[in-house]
Amino acid sequence: MLELKVEVEPGDVGFDAERLARIDAHFARYVDDGRLPGWLILVSRAGKIVHLGVRGQRDMEAGKPMEANTLFRIYSMTKPITAVAVMMLYEEGAFELKDPVSRFIPAFGDVRVYKSGSALKPVTEPLREPLRIWHLLTHTAGLTYGFHHAHPVDALYRAAGFEWGPPHNLNLAACCETWAGLPLLFQPGTEWNYSVASDVLGRVIEVASGMNLDQFFNERIFQPLAMQDTRFWVDDGDSDRLAALYSPQPNTLQALRNNALDRIGRQRPASCLGGDGLVSTVADYHRFTQMLLRGGELDGVRLLGNRTLRYMTRNHLPGGVDLERFGRPLFAETTFDGIGYGLGFSVALDPVANKVLSSPGEFAWGGAASTAFWVDPAEKITVLLFTQLFPSSSHPLRPQLRQLVYQALVN
Questions:
Q1: pLDDT digits (tens, 9 = 90+) for 82-101
Q2: What string of H, E and C letters represents the secondary structure of 282-312?
Q3: 3-state secondary structure of 344
């Protein structure tokens, strides 16, 4: 088990200690008034942990405290790990970014595109160009999520059993076959829509590598990076460490245990997805962010070339525009103004347009239970927020954390 502790005095890496203390004071109020069960916050600079805050409980009903080794469901923070895995295979020559997805999943060669009509009677048209690997990496594939509730195709996903996850009887290959049988929202490459694209990438990884996705993650990423606690489910010996999952009550916003979703992560899923499902710790994901900050290498282990990492964290939206101009104004684990999208990460283009303190070039993502991370190459900063409140849109935790971290940076 990785040890987690503060490694450097704030002043030695350009932080003001009193200003850093504002982070814990602010987020303590979320626990004290019952909006959050508990949280862990980690801030590092130049590879050294400068701030580690912990508050509240991992299980309020059982009175179990939040601890450094608490396990969390990280939901869509699985996606950047999938993107890294995809680009590792890319570096090995397994495919080109312009390759059709149908090379690995033939059913996507015949996919149709929504044109008009209702969910009961959609009118579709053929693809104008193939659905490609880069479309999946950038969420410009035309795929969707059933939970969006914004389009007739979303309703088709729900009718097929896909809203907050796949049907329990489908493995990843079967999920992809089902999605390929549903129409795309738009022609690939013409818009941005948060979707199951990373899940499809998980299947591409399986076919290209000849390994199950959980096996690939474990052997090629988690073991090399010493991420000992990151997996798709916890066994009985570690179940006590898994934080309970909560949701806000509609009127009071008090955190109330979500018993339906709390079962997630406590048993092996039918499908290990590339888009969500991993369980991890702050210590483990800190290792992952340090690898990203260092350009693909950590402690002598290189997963990616530094040029590949820089390429992934550039804005890949056509025309260099932000998500506000190119994306559909739906739920995503990022804001839209001044934010672009790379290969698996949001990318800060214009902090002024975003109206939150940050640096151009910062890349980030989050998860549906309010976990989040960002990496700031310009300032050599990485930040993690781990809690368990679903959905992540319940409170403005992420922008508040950014403003509090950057106001504490004085050199």
A1: 999 999 999 999 999 999 99
A2: HHHHHHHHHHHHCCCEECCEECCCHHHHHHH
A3: coil
